[in-house]
Every structure is written in C-alpha cells, then in structure tokens.
Amino acid sequence: MSEKIEYSKLARYTVQKGDSEFSVAEHFNVSVGALRLVNSRSAGNYLKPGRKIYLPVEK
C-alpha cells in the first residue's frame, strides 16, 4: 500500500556541500520519498552542491 502524498506548492532549495537526502528531508520536515517524488528521482545521486531542487510544502 503506497502512501498518498498531497502538496499545495513547492519551494526551491539550493543543495549545500554535505547535504544528503536524509539531512535535507529532516531539516525541512518532509519524507525522503516525498523529496524523490517531487524531484522525479529514485536515488540520492541528484543532490550535488549548487543544484536547485524542489521541496514539497504540505497542503
């Protein structure tokens, strides 16, 4: 059974050196799954310093 995730908007974040999926998710109080979903990724290799990613903002 998959978790239903609803978001009303997205915020942008610039990845910093040392960031990981887990640290970003924890800092912004979102799940790693939600981060992957809104950024259309299945693994954490998209987090490179300077890259802009989306952060889900809960509805």
UniProtKB/TrEMBL annotation:
SUPFAM superfamilies: LysM domain (SSF54106). It comes from the Bacteria. It holds the Pfam family LysM. Residues 11-55 form the LysM domain. This is LysM domain protein. It comes from Levilactobacillus brevis ATCC 14869 = DSM 20054. The lineage of its organism: Bacteria, Bacillati, Bacillota, Bacilli, Lactobacillales.
